[in-house]
Amino acid sequence: MRHLRIWAAMSGTIIAIFGYSSPSLASPGIAIEAVDDYSISLPGSNTIAIEEATPFWNIMTATGQWYGISFWTDGNVWDTDFYDPELTGWSVDDDSWFDTPNAGISMAIGHGWCKADYYLQPQCSSDANCTNGYCPGGSLNSGEHHMCTKQTQRQFWTSSSIQQHGNQVNYGSSGAGIYWKSFAMGESSQSGGWAGVGTNGGTNLFILINSCGFRWRNWLDDSKYMFAGMHLLFVNSPVSGFTDSTGKAGHADTAQCLTCGSTLASYIMSNLDAPANEAWTNPTLVNSSYLCAGDPGVNCGHSEGVNVVMSKDTTATAATNRATYENWYAVQMNSYDAHGADFAYRIGGCNYDCVQYGY
Questions:
Q1: pTM of the predicted model, to two decimals?
Q2: Alpha carbons 90 and 103: distance in angstroms, whole number
Q3: pLDDT digits (tens, 9 = 90+) for 297-322
């Protein structure tokens, strides 16, 4: 597995290093929303999201170092829980149930959507072969070809009779500068209201686990509006898109993983002084986080993916240090909230040789 560290900004190129000590606890709350039962919105596609989230909740809250705020499941997970009212101008309540003022960690697990990224896309050998998208990386076997990955909005799906947005939470961009508004995380009295979404949130770490949650190549578009004061984002980024030797299409996707919640929580609790990014990019977790999907009968030999840790802040130094060095004590501290999103930085933990095969 490789770890990639990349930063981006509109201007400036400065990187420095500092460390965090272990301050007193401030926001050690955990809020989780997970959906197994998709009989309402996506019939026939139930998940094991609750089974993945429950061990995470149990391990994290067992010692008193963290405590549980809320754990909503299935029909009690509403699409309105994830739309910021100030950002969207709608009557929604993410600050009441998900991005709450006392949340150190907010986790959402459920379905995303991959099909629009690959449907009827051509084979490719370079980005020049792709319209409104790119030619992805990953390895190929004999007779296989890369397949263009189209840029589309990202989605998190709920499945409840109580909904205002069709049980869909759209984020990111479908290209041409059009961005969807939903998540805006971490706005607090400590971060200030620079993001234009008030100061009524508080999440410091957002963990988003869904199909095709991010695209490594579209990371800045996919995270548009998400950072409003939060420290870090953990998200999955499947990479592979291909046609096999018979022309059938396949692609990598985020895996349903019974052990991933416990793996992540155990890694966190084993050393709270460790940089938080190491838990999300640890090889055991990354190697269990992806699978191959596609057309019926496709020779599914590729499940390349990247676990992404991302930060944004007012300077390259702050964004870089936050993603690289912030430990779990700091994740609980609202005094470390971001005060802007001018610079972005990401760390990637790959389940393949992403240096050789690309993204």
A1: 0.92
A2: 22
A3: 899 889 999 999 999 999 999 999 99
